[in-house]
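Section: Multi-chain targets

For targets with more than one molecule, the full set of components is provided together so that the structure can be written out for the assembly as a whole rather than chain by chain. Components appear in the order listed by the source. The example entry contains two components.
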Amino acid sequence: MALMFFSEYDDPREWKEHLVALMPDLDVRIWPDLGRLEDIDCALVWKHKPGDLKRYPNLKMIVNLGAGVDYILTDPDLPRGVPIVRLVDPYLTKQMSDYIVLTVLAYHRRFPEFARAQRERRWQYIHPVDPARTRVGVMGLGVLGGDAARRLRELDFQVAGWSRTPKAIDGVASFHGADGLMPFLDRTDILVCLLPRTRDTDDLLDARTLRALPQGARVVNAGRGHLIVDGDLIAALDDGQIAHATLDVFRTEPLPADHPYWRHERVTITPHCASVTLPRTAAPQIIDNLRRLRDGRKLLNRVDPAAGY
Amino acid sequence: MALMFFSEYDDPREWKEHLVALMPDLDVRIWPDLGRLEDIDCALVWKHKPGDLKRYPNLKMIVNLGAGVDYILTDPDLPRGVPIVRLVDPYLTKQMSDYIVLTVLAYHRRFPEFARAQRERRWQYIHPVDPARTRVGVMGLGVLGGDAARRLRELDFQVAGWSRTPKAIDGVASFHGADGLMPFLDRTDILVCLLPRTRDTDDLLDARTLRALPQGARVVNAGRGHLIVDGDLIAALDDGQIAHATLDVFRTEPLPADHPYWRHERVTITPHCASVTLPRTAAPQIIDNLRRLRDGRKLLNRVDPAAGY
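Its structure, encoded as tokens over all components, is:
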């Protein structure tokens, strides 16, 4: 079988090495050196060039090199009927949860306030509080959000989650659907957004929902930039409704140099690096799906384009 | 029994409430309203006024309201022969480990570099690496350091520890004594200092030991300010030998407004808040020691003034 690889963010040789180690007869071709396009059975892609995927007449599976499939699903030239699978990489999940633990602990331990005090050469002692008194709310309780909620629970935070459908996670209060949104926001001191981008989640955090959080709430967005109405967030930061935002994802990436987030003293920017897929831990499931494809068995982690994830 | 309470950092009423809940006949007196000084059997103190402890003729036990006893042991007017115990509070330990997890993850996930890039409005993508490739070294493997080493190990970091005597912690390489120091530093990308202040640890991190770390190493000090020769650390930060230092403790606290640490762009300052003792979790062991004192049994967590901890 032949697999086509495209990503501007990942090392193609490292991917090839890990894939071939598991399936020695796999023919890995790295874009743009693809030879006969008719040979390609499978595409392993991250942020492919628009229209590229329709060039392969015998394409039988598209593997999204990551968890979020919003980019791939908005390609108007996506070949119809070719199944799309996404990666559910245990390492990607852990890495995202590490990022959430880091950013939530930084809020809980008042690091933004200490950074401000340091700029003013001011020793501002703040007595640390018990995590059991800090209410964290995780939006999205899928593979990533579920794991993050569990990790925060282990740190003794008061954790709740909100998702489209009800979920049961030990020790995590569950809210769901439109009716659950406002009560969920009302009890959330630190809001963690890990929702996928879908029609339903676009612009979900706007003036109205941000106002539903307690005054001085803090926000982490490691889902997708489109979840947040940027102007509304900036207004909420300016009037103190939101005390701080840590943002890893943006509507336009790289974030344009003139975007007001860059210079806002209550915004921490990380360059979409909360989590990445590692060849070592993700290669086995790609190979598994290639074998399933060859044997005509059911593919794992298949994306439902109608649901958007 | 009568207990005298003194701390300028903690809420006396909260401590009284938790102590009396466990021993209703305990007579808790809050400094300076102490009544007859002859009544006082026990002192529960944090950074007491110099000379104060010699005022109580019937003092039978001094409880240090925290883990580090360097302040109390340097009091020349410490009453001779009165046993000193320190608090080994499970919550204090967890809180310290949370701080270490937070600061080590922040280094590993390149937050200082992202903060610098943000100041320059620069999108600087850095591909995250596997924690298994980052070597963390914990100096001090007592109650605090041992727990921190275990927590870092759970996050998949490559962890080693250095201590006065050899320690065995699963998955943590152990170095000890003077002979072990240089090999330990040589393999350490992120150095975590959790040593107590003793004659042996004063000035331990100087030009020579900082130079033994790999170039670009990063440092966290949540032990005591006296472990570090400040001028040597600043020189090492300036010439790039040390990439960043996160400091919670200082030789003089509060850190004087004219100290060069405040304005150093490669230094993160937190105001000695890595860990505090909570009445809720620490009160039971104080009451336990009061009962032991009353019954003539062996006290727990007794300090050895000769060793300094």
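Chain A has a mean pLDDT of 95.
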